Amino acid sequence: MQEDTTDELPNVDELMQRVADAYDSLPRQLKSVASYLEQHRSSVMVDRTSDIAASCGVHPSAVVRFAQRFGFSGFSDLQEVFKQAYAGQNPSGQTYKQRIRKLIDDKPGRLSGGNVAREFVAACRNGLDELEATLDDEQFEAAVSMLQHAENIYVIGVRRSFAVASYIVYALQHTAKRVHLISGFGGMFREQIRSVKKGDVVIAISFEPYGRETQYCLRIAHHHQAQTLVITDSLLSPLARYASAQLYVKEGSAFAFRALTSTICLCQALFVALAYRLELNVEEAKDTGGYDDF
């Protein structure tokens, strides 16, 4: 059954929200196409149906069926939504990968360490540019407010996200907040998250393929009515369904390695915004003569 459509094209965010709402009911092949579109928003307008199908491991007809599922006559009509949003911009995802591939093809000899480093720096810069362009101010403000009023803050991130989780805990410990790293040392994720309660906030950081331990901690937080701040890479992330507030970040990558630059930058900005908010409260308390009670 196709989604309802109108003569006026939706914008990209509206379309992807519809995809996210319907994601759980999609067949496996269409889920793969949905994930591709979410991860490569800025390059979909120039991607060929066959290339998307190959990347998703599906037949090209599945890409057309996906478009029809959401009310378009074919994939080219769906692409028009992305063309309206990204025309004139440099696609930072697929196009960058094509640039890397071209670099390797054009220079079949061994690259110097400096060349590799500069390509990776360029990938990080692309990721930061996209973060700046796509940052959701409303969700960011909601995240800061949640942390400001949290009784306890629990932070979970596994594997490549563990470094980010550790940094957030380090930074937040410079405030008066009670902060707990869910490290899972000794396999004790369950024991470390079981005391979470209403009034607390759980910060969960996870990117595709999404840590099972992180998902478990979010479910526990949701069950105990704690608020949750999810930092992830897609509306289609399984973490999004448990989010009280959500921040999306898509890292640049080079030579099949994804950076952490944008994620760290987002978390540093979150800490600075929180510290600024808390300090304003201190200053207001000083002005009213109530600092000793703060």
TrEMBL record:
Gene Ontology BP term (one)? glycolytic process
Q: Which GO terms describe its molecular function?
A: carbohydrate derivative binding; DNA binding; DNA-binding transcription factor activity
Residue limits of the SIS domain? 143-285
Query: Which CDD domains does its entry note?
Result: SIS_RpiR (cd05013)
Which Pfam families does this UniProt record tie to the protein?
Answer: HTH_6, SIS
UniProt domain HTH rpiR-type: residue ranges: 13-89
Q: Where is the signal peptide?
A: none
Say yes or no: keyword Transmembrane helix present: no
| Entry keywords, A to Z | DNA-binding, Glycolysis, Transcription, Transcription regulation
According to the lineage, what is the superkingdom?
Bacteria
> Which protein, by its recorded name, is this?
MurR/RpiR family transcriptional regulator
Q: Which organism is it from?
A: Trinickia dinghuensis
